[in-house]
User: Fold these one by one.
Assistant:
Number 1:
Amino acid sequence: MPSPISRTVAVIGAGAAGLCAALELRREGHSVVVYERENKVGGIWAYTPETELDPMGSDPARRVVHSSLYASLRTNLPREVMGFRVYPFVASRKPGRDPRRFPCHGEVLEYLRDFAQEFGLEEMMRFGMEVWHVGLVEDRKWMVRSKKRNGEGGDDEVYDAVVVCNGHYTEPRIAEIPGIDEWPGKQIHSHNYRVPEPFRDQVVVLIGSSASADDISREIAKVANEVHIASRSAQIEDIGQLPGYDNIWLHSMISSVHKDGTVAFHDGDKIYADVILHCTGYKYHFPFLETNGIVTVEDNRVGPLYQHVFPPALAPWLSFVGLPWKVVPFILFEYQCKWIAGVLSGRIPLESTEEMKSDIEAFYSSLKAAGVDKRYTHQMGASQFEYDDWLAGKSGSPPTKEWRKQMYFVTGKRKSSWPKTYRDQWEDEDLITQANQDFKQESELLA
């Protein structure tokens, strides 16, 4: 086997994915620069009370606030599952830290800071540098153009490869509602939700059924007069007042809204509402990336991508980390980054362009045959561990431990059955024991 080749690689973003990419690329012997528009690591986990002037986040000219976290957010995964394999997310003994099994967002940020410090990653960082252009130049290299957030100039540099790690929780996805242009109430996307106080004494319609929608609806209900949840996945038998609450109702999706302030639902109910809160997710957004139409985002499908990572026509010189959703993110980042780093060095062979295209076509055909819309292309859920283990096989890493899979599914069932208490009450102590035993072995093996 030929000696591994060292490449110059630009990583876009210093959130969890970007930090992981920096570590694995450097371990593989590459020369790495990480561009981060903020002045610290953390990405989405760097909470700010600041919100955008456009509450819907739909104005392309707006000043973008990257984080979408709300003040009370706690993880919906236990820390044992959530952490990187190489650096377990164990409770810290440092003062001011959150030792809970499902900690607050600030604890996750501190964990990522600790991770960066432990592996000396900040020496590769260029903080306060926003990438505004990534494009091909001669010899299939990439020009990365960046500017300082304070407006005092920037840099143009050429790299062998670019790894995109800019996250996908910043560009709001908005529900289309018949009659909304004439409806007199207020609208806001959850990207700009921080605290419940602005909804005091209001009648709120919340669209969505994600984990954050569950949390936000219950939090708002403490101060609002009424909260009405509109959900595409609502079952007929569940429609009506939520058990245990006197001011939360579940409905089917909104059918229309009207200029007298009414909101009508497909289940036949009608209410007068002050606010519609869109907890409707986000769009993939790469405003800096110019590929001459090779990579596109169509109905939230980023493609064509081989295994959600490499566009065949540009592989391996352009790659994406962290596109899949409904996953355990950090460990997925780890597996993807090991694969990317090994492919770039030549240590791991990559399938031919034609083989990658054929695989993508087969994948898209299977989604279509199953009636899955394009916007769910990157949704994984139960299939994520098969994907993780495929990636592990590519990089020569051990597959996902069984306790991690079981803990993920047990937590999901508990969250569904006891949404108010699942973060503080559990019965999987045997899995926690297995996790702690593995942490020692894994950190020694992978360090």
Number 2:
Amino acid sequence: MQEEDEATRNTSEEADVVQFDDSQDQPNDMGFSRSTLQTIKTLQSKFDTQDDGEKELLYNDLTASARRKDAVRLFFELLVLKTKDMVDVKQPEAYGNIMITPKETLYTAITAAT
């Protein structure tokens, strides 16, 4: 039942919110936690569905109706992905929105990690 709930959350394209499953969040052989893998897959999906050709997501859009816990977790996961050179993040002004752009490794590392 829990897997079914998680699958429903992960495949819902109507929700722009990133939600996390806290169960068994241990790193795998590649050093990616379950949350990191989930974030990678979610970002890939959201970048792939952009029609304008410009690959950029805004943190505020991703977390607009998210629970505080999920918004904080996404922020942390973005830092993890940035340190692994999988995304680029820019915040032009203090406390401003964060622009997220993918790097090629966002798409190549996931195949090695799963």
Number 3:
Amino acid sequence: MMSQLAPSDPLPAFAPPKTAPPGNDGSWEFKTTPDPDPDTLDPTWDKANGYKTLKQVYKSRPGGHDGRSTVPMLWDSNNKEVVCNESYDIIELFNSGLNQLAHNPGLDLSPPSLKPKIEEWNSIVNNGVYR
């Protein structure tokens, strides 16, 4: 959703994987051909690195990485490093520091009047997901 609302090309380097079980090795897979169903959110090909899975992207970091490969993930393709993999923080980054790159820079996804409610919901969702 963030990639459609805020950043312009070339950010992000790839779209989020669709809501489906990961591939056979437990890694999120990129597709070369989109799903013909317009209501299905599919990942695009990894335009930044050319990899087939998110696990390969994480392993390409300096020093590698053999742990979990989680989404969402904001990737620095120049330094081959994960910038952030926390959804709330990624939204805040795009909403503030990267807003000038947005298709709709006037769109405020975290208005001050809603900030307390957003933080409340974030704590509920993240506590439920990471337990």
